[in-house]
Amino acid sequence: MANTTAKLHVVYGDGTLGLHGEGFQYIFSYERGGLESLKRDGKEWLYRVPKPTFWRATTDNDRGNRFSEKSAMWLGADLFSPCTDIEVAVNGQVITLPIAPENNRYSDHETADKVTIRFTYTTTTVPATTMTVSYTVDATGEIRVQAHFNGQAGLPELPALGIRFSMPTAAQGFTYRGLSGETYPDRMAGGQPGDYQVTGLPVTPYMVPQECGMHMATERATVTRAITLNNADPDTEPFSLTFKQAGTPFNFSCLPYTAEELENATHIEELPLLRRTVFTVFGAVRGVGGIDSWGADVEAKYHLPADRDYDFEFVIAGTQD
Amino acid sequence: MLLQADLKWLDDPQTYRVNQLPAHSDHHYYRTVAEMQAQQSSFVQSLDGTWQFAFAPTPQERPVGFEQPDADHQNFGDIQVPGHIELAGYGQLHYTNTLYPWEGKLYRRPAYTLGDTTGMPGMFSAGPDNTVGAYLKTFTLSPKLRDHRVVIQFDGVEEAMYLWLNGHFVGYAEDSFSQSEFDLTPYLQTGENLLAVEVFKRSTAAFLEDQDFFRFSGIFRSVRLVAQPTVHVNDLTIRANVLDDLTTGDFNLTLALNDDAGQSGAQIKTILHAADRVLLNQTVPAQAEVTIQHVPVPNVHLWDHHDPYLYQLQVEVLDAEGHLLEVVPYDVGFRRIELKDKVMCLNGHRLILNGVNRHEWDAKRGRSVTVADMQYDLQVFKQHHINAVRTCHYPDQIDWYYLCDRNGIYMMAENNLETHGTWQKMGAVEPSDNVPGSLPQWRGAVVDRARSNYQAFKNHPAVLFWSLGNESYAGDDIAAMDRYYHEHDETRLTHYEGVCRNRAYEDQISDMESMMYDPPKVIREYLDNDPQKPFVNCEYMHDMGNSLGGMNSYTDLIDQYPMYQGGFIWDYIDQALLINDEVTGQPVLRYGGDFDDRHSDYEFSGDGLLFADRTPKPALQEVSYYYGKYDR
Asked: Across the interface, do B546 and A60 touch by the CB < 8 Å criterion?
């Protein structure tokens, strides 16, 4: 394997940290507070930097038991929580944040075995808490994403907890190894394990658009797109990106809309034209409930209390995968 | 003209059928065995299709006298029968749940409640919200129906109807979901006949039909003319019992013929057979009533969900010369439903209900569903281990009962009754103006609904339970309904959830403890504390939107408590209408409030395992898993 001895090329920019290798180019933005560019074989995978997500579009049961009213501050946190700290480690050693003039000491020939960049987001809740998202990149282009939510007493229960990737164009579809259908922690017994292919980005057509499309207990998921926003790229050959479990399975949804877009629609036809792919990895998922739709809460074991910590991780597969 | 139509009937809860023929079994009959095999009866002339129609927003604006053949019908348009007036472009679509459709527009209290002695004249006959559909159909009797007694059958007209033939008043009916039948013979003429039906959207029946659904009106089920031979089986009551040994069938049959059948010299030949053997072949002289009792069927092949085995009954009416006048087929299922040690058992085994509540719904046709819809639904049932259905909250189309017989679907056959708007107010139980309650003026109407349901469907093996209605509180009148069912049928159990709101009646109403939406913990408390009746969830797992989580907390009870016998998921299919979007022109599903209809309960009608267009919701695989686990 030629790449086993290859080094990761590191660009200590004035506003970004670039990590390059054969077939990949990643740019982490200090200003945007996250991974700004994830490029594989010349194709961009990110439209905006990935952000922690704390909201799900209110289900009818959430509305009935007033969960969204009680947890409303997480909606603001989902939309607005800023990045408040960034830390960079090269080959496991934390370095002084390499922004100007600190980065004047670097060259155009910097390499490393692996680099970790950790973003801390402070929630716009009262009280506030933090969530950290670390990206560790090696020379194969594999990105290990590790997230940690700091529990904080006094916060309402979480509607959701994850990291949301907004991709520039709508996917042709996705495949995954996991459970059939749409599953939630309290509704996954009927999900059959297997390999599944989903065409397009279906939004489950609940009469009032709401949280949908969750896939629990997933080993891997591959998103395939065919077009980019790059005006100089007329190519329409499909290209793919794979998310893999890191140790334990992960949960995800792959939809054309954010939770807020779904939240605002009263009918599916009011949703925007299909333009993006919103791929979200969920570290924790609240159940959907089902006793009634006018007051009964989701069963207690499927709640997400916010006074405890949550950790989750997953891998964005390297170029050799 | 003996009788004149009177608008006051709309206001009077004591007038709910005028000149209507008595309810009877839903059997078909044929002129020949060949007709029977082809299921095409030459005694029947369908009146489905295009009718002439005029719409009036109020009773006062209706075309008075339109039933007269010499009236001016130039302003009449067309409408399809069966169908809803509101989906034909007349009258506003409206969805509301508990609150009555006049909420915030008109103040109404049911007649004779709160001490009223006036009967509240004019409440509906002068109701500004009482739209009227005037229907006309001309027909010429087909040759095969001539020279017979001819009756007309309306399978469903919402919510009150007056009928005329050739200008003569024939009769009046309420109860939107039961068949209404009238004798047309006195007024038939050779050549063209003019049938006129005046359909009112509201009457006192509106208080009894407050189901959580779109509020439609019109002739929404089929209409047909049916000729009867000179000797005719009006009614049959089959009792296909199973003896204690659970291996011997006990067949009983009572036929009701016309009163003068005994003078006709006719003979009644009764054959009961299975595919390979004849169990009964007996010919007796015709009488007004013919009974056959206790015909043993050794080693009887029992009917159940997994093996819905049916025997074939064939009743032939032969005239004095031995010529066939009519032949009546009916499928017979031998099964035994009973309470043993407070557990409901079918054929000796504990019954587990993997059920759904099913509204009749079609996204394009509303409640005017098709046989194709029904067949699709049965496929879904089969694929996902659904073994039981509650006909919420009214009798369904007749075909559905036959299909459930053949497909082994256990039916909780509910009559047409729901009055939650008279006692569920702002989340509280507040029954001060409840109907039917214990009001004598309302008793006849609700017992009539029980009677219609029982008489029509009493021969279906699929029907295991009679259900007294939904969410109507409890009083003497519902107790009278329960009594009606038990007095007429020793072979089935009764169901009614509403008695749990007024437990003073629990010894008189419902053979089972039925609740809706109780959390599993509350059900355990019931079952742990000396329960007197087996427990059934008549509605549970409210599948509104993205829901149906935690189903195992209910199914676990099946393993833990013999008296927990499962339930019926709420519900089978979303109620939404496929409408062309006013912006894009594309077909979209619309729900309450989307038609400027107020007060509305908006998306609350979307609780199905299927979307309104019959595509499955993701939750269905979970139902399939758990119902499959208990599919015994």
From this structure: yes
Chain A closest CA to B547's CA: distance in Å?
5
Please choose, from the candidates B256, B313, B319, B309, the residue with its C-alpha nearest in 3D space to the C-alpha of residue B282: B313
pLDDT tens for each residue of B58-92: 999 999 999 999 999 999 999 999 999 999 999 99
Q: What is the mean pLDDT of residues B342-354?
A: 98
| pLDDT confidence tier of residue A138, bands split at 50, 70 and 90 | very high
Write the CATH number of the domain with boundaries B247-332: 2.60.40.10
Q: Do B545 and A60 touch (CB under 8 A)?
A: yes
Is B513 tagged catalytic? Answer: no
Domain with CATH 2.60.40.10 in chain B: 247-332
Q: Residue A278: beta bridge partners?
A: A166, A255
Average of pLDDT values for A275-293?
98
CATH number assigned to the domain with residue range A8-317, chosen from the 4 options 1.10.1740.10, 2.70.98.10, 2.130.10.10, 3.40.47.10: 2.70.98.10
> What is the token pair recorded at B173?
């009916």
ipTM for the assembly: 0.91
**Each residue's pLDDT tens digit, A205-222:** 999 999 999 999 999 999
Q: Is the separation of the CB atoms in A28 and A34 below 8 Å?
A: yes
Task: Give the CATH fold of the B7-228 domain.
Answer: Jelly Rolls (2.60.120)
- Which residues of A lie closer than 8 Å to B, measured between beta carbons? 59-61, 64, 180-192, 204-208, 210-212, 267-269, 287-293, 296, 298-299, 302
The residue extents of the domains of chain A are: 8-317
Active-site pick, B67, B86, B471, B513: B471
Q: State how far residue B520 is from chain A, nearest Cα, in angstroms.
A: 9
Phi, psi angle pair for B503, to nearest 5°: -70, -5
Mean pLDDT of A13-28: 96
- Residue B276's pLDDT band (cuts 50, 70, 90): confident
Using a CB-CB cut-off of 8 Å, the residues of chain B touching A189 are 551-552, 622, 625-626
**Sequential DSSP letters for B3-41:** ----GGGGG-TT--EESPPPP------BSSHHHHHHT--
pLDDT of residue A4: 54
The answer regarding whether domain B345-577+607-629 maps to CATH 3.20.20.80 reads yes
Q: Give the one of A191, A204, A302 whose C-beta lies nearest to B549's C-beta.
A: A302
Instruction: Report the alpha-carbon distance of residue B601 to residue B596 in Å, rounded.
Output: 12
Where in chain B is CATH 3.20.20.80?
345-577+607-629
Question: pLDDT tens-digit profile of B302-323?
Answer: 999 999 999 999 999 999 999 9
Which among B591, B603, B618 is the nearest to A204, CB-wise? B618
For residues A106-132, one letter each, b for 16 or more C-beta atoms within 10 angstroms of the residue's C-beta and e for the rest, the string is eeeebebebbbbbbbbbbbbeeebbbb
pLDDT band of residue A2 (cuts 50, 70, 90) is very low
If 0-12 CB within 10 Å is exposed, 13-18 middle and 19+ buried, where does residue A185 land? buried
Which residue intervals of chain B bear CATH 2.60.120.260?
A: 7-228
The alpha-carbon gap from B545 to the nearest alpha carbon of chain A, in Å, equals: 5
* Interface test with chain A among B546, B552, B591, by most A beta carbons within 10 Å: B546
Give per-residue pLDDT as tens, A157-202: 999 999 999 999 999 999 999 999 999 999 999 999 999 999 999 9
Statement: residue B3 has pLDDT above 90 = no
Alpha helices in B341-419 (DSSP H): 371-383, 398-407
